[in-house]
UniProtKB/TrEMBL annotation:
Pfam family, one: Response_reg
Keywords: DNA-binding, Phosphoprotein, Transcription, Transcription regulation, Two-component regulatory system
GO biological process terms, semicolon-separated: regulation of DNA-templated transcription
UniProt name for this protein: Two-component system OmpR family response regulator
SMART domains noted in UniProt: REC (SM00448), Trans_reg_C (SM00862)
Record PANTHER family: REGULATOR OF RPOS, TWO-COMPONENT RESPONSE REGULATOR
InterPro entries documented for this protein: CheY-like_superfamily, OmpR/PhoB-type_DNA-bd, Sig_transdc_resp-reg_receiver, WalR-like, WH-like_DNA-bd_sf
GO molecular function: phosphorelay response regulator activity; transcription cis-regulatory region binding
Amino acid sequence: MQIFPLPHDDSSPTLDAMRILVIEDDQEAAAYLTKALREAGHVADHAPDGLEGYALAREGAYDVLIVDRMLPKLDGLSVIRSLREQHVDTPVLILSALGQVDDRVKGLRAGGDDYLPKPYSFSELLARIEVLSRRRAAPTGEATTYRVGDLELDRLSHRVTRSGQEIILQPREFRLLEYLMRHAGQVVTRTMLLENVWDYHFDPQTNVIDVHVSRLRSKIDKGHERPLIQTIRGAGYMVRDSAH
């Protein structure tokens, strides 16, 4: 039985960009969901069965996993249990046509963080993802603020300032800058950006990275004597304070 999301409200606020894995065997439902997530500004990958989903999720490159319970090859709850046994702590939202209390309890006890019965409202799904992401926003030991010269990025408030002046960034621009600043002083290759900021299925020859870096540079460096975002010819990009 095919169960699709209920129509979503286009007025819902856009969330900060996340990398999301959808593990769903219903191809049509998966296509609907991944398309909607991408339109909301997120990177969405799809795995059609439990084994492939488990393999992708183990890489640990995702912010949230959306897992259907009834999957071929390896059922959804087994996927989640196996991930938790491997110490993969990525937040999991379980989607299922099984919506009774006992079903939800089993899902949560298997290691799921939230449970949403089908059919569901897409705006509610986005809100639940936001909550899961917020819980994981500042893991223990990871910096919540990055500083390079007079540029500061606050991961919790999603606020960027330079010389005390706030800079308004789009979700993708924020994620791009966050990644560059996390690796300040290091060369970040286009492949690294494709895998960590964009959907890695993109053609590596695409100029989407150059376009976004150019836009980001115009917001970060324009009007300042020292450029912080630098192009390393033949290698990639680097954020550093040239004064030091």
